[in-house]
Design goal:
- The protein is an alpha+beta fold.
- It has two domains: 2-148, Gcn5-related N-acetyltransferase (GNAT) (Aminopeptidase, 3-Layer(aba) Sandwich), CATH 3.40.630; 152-297, Aminopeptidase (3-Layer(aba) Sandwich), CATH 3.40.630.
- It has helices at residues 9-12, 15-21, 30-42, 86-98, 112-117, 143-149, 162-181, 184-190, 193-200, 203-206, 242-253, 266-274, and strands spanning 2-5, 46-53, 56-64, 71-77, 102-107, 121-129, 132-142, 153-156, 209-213, 217-224, 227-233, 258-262, 278-285, 292-297.
Length: 298
């Protein structure tokens, strides 16, 4: 199996190539595909990569190099060859061939999971069209951050992690929640590193926390039975895939099925939606405030 740049017009405009690429087209037909591929081939900033296996087209990736951030315009793997990592390998090989470290893409709910598995961070957005609203996802990959993330481990928290756990909780809560709650007495009075470290040093709490550690503890997730009680990543390591790694890990290894998110924390809600959670109609107030929490379930 080999992935390489391809400018063979006859092969790329063939029925075989269409049968692979149609998986990432809206209302595909052969004529529309040929028009689209002709347009790609006529653009100097667009590069087409083809994965070949046993003489057949196993996958296609279309990459646009214009502006600061290269973008995947389309990627598809032959139906009978899916589930073997061909898509992620095409991305790696294309990035290596192009000498790029960062990459973007746009996709829908059907394909966002693929990009997340490839290490992309995702942002949900609503796009308004004349006939309605469509949910799309913007996807971003930083190869350097991804490479660093691959060296990390997710493990149970230990006593020696308390200072980092407290730092992450205190400073991220101040950044994200002070604008919502506007309570400086809590943000800068009650919310102190030493106080939080003491609170989380209790065995009954610490044993329910997992941390992401690649030599530095950069994130944590707190589980209470079927509930994800907390998920925080150090501000300096946001958008490096750590939150996604923690969340997907507990989804796979623990019987989690719901969480509560602050309704005004739209970034968090979009993040959880990208990982398969959906908003329910159930709400409650954050204790001691008039801010609503919304329940989200898998």
């Amino acid at each position: 199996m080999e992935t390489a740049f391809c400018n063979d017009r006859e092969r790329l405009l063939s029925q075989e190539a269409y049968l692979v690429y149609r998986a990432c087209m809206y209302a595909p037909d052969f004529k529309k595909y040929k028009e689209k591929m002709e347009a790609f081939l006529s653009e100097p900033c667009v590069r087409v990569y083809l994965c070949e296996e046993e003489g057949e087209t196993a996958g296609l990736l279309v990459l646009k190099r214009s502006g600061e951030l290269p973008e995947i315009l389309g990627i598809a793997v032959a139906e009978q060859r899916r589930g073997r990592g061909i898509g992620s390998d095409m991305i790696r090989q294309a990035m290596k061939a192009e000498g790029i470290a960062r990459l973007s893409a746009q996709t829908d709910a059907d394909a966002v999971g693929f990009y997340q598995k490839c290490g992309f961070s995702t942002e949900r957005e609503e796009v308004r069209y004349p006939d309605g609203v469509s949910v799309r996802y913007r996807c971003f990959l930083d190869a350097a951050a991804r490479k660093a993330g691959e060296t990390g481990v997710i493990r149970k928290a230990r006593l020696e992690d308390l200072s980092r756990i407290a730092e992450i909780l205190v400073f991220v809560k101040r950044i994200k929640f002070r604008p919502i709650f506007q309570d400086d007495e809590y943000s800068f009075g009650e919310l102190q590193v030493l106080r939080v470290a003491k609170q989380y040093g209790k065995a009954e709490i610490l044993e329910k926390i997992l941390v992401y550690d690649d030599g530095i503890v950069k994130g944590l997730i707190h589980i209470e039975g079927e509930e994800i009680a907390q998920l925080y990543v150090d501000y300096f390591f946001w958008r490096s895939g750590i939150g996604s790694a923690l969340l997907e890990y507990v989804k796979e290894h623990f019987p989690v099925r719901f969480l509560w998110a602050i309704e005004k924390n739209t970034d968090a809600i979009r993040f959880y939606e990208a990982h398969g959670f959906h908003r329910t109609q159930e709400k409650k107030f954050e204790e001691g405030t008039d801010e609503s929490l919304v329940k989200m379930e898998l």
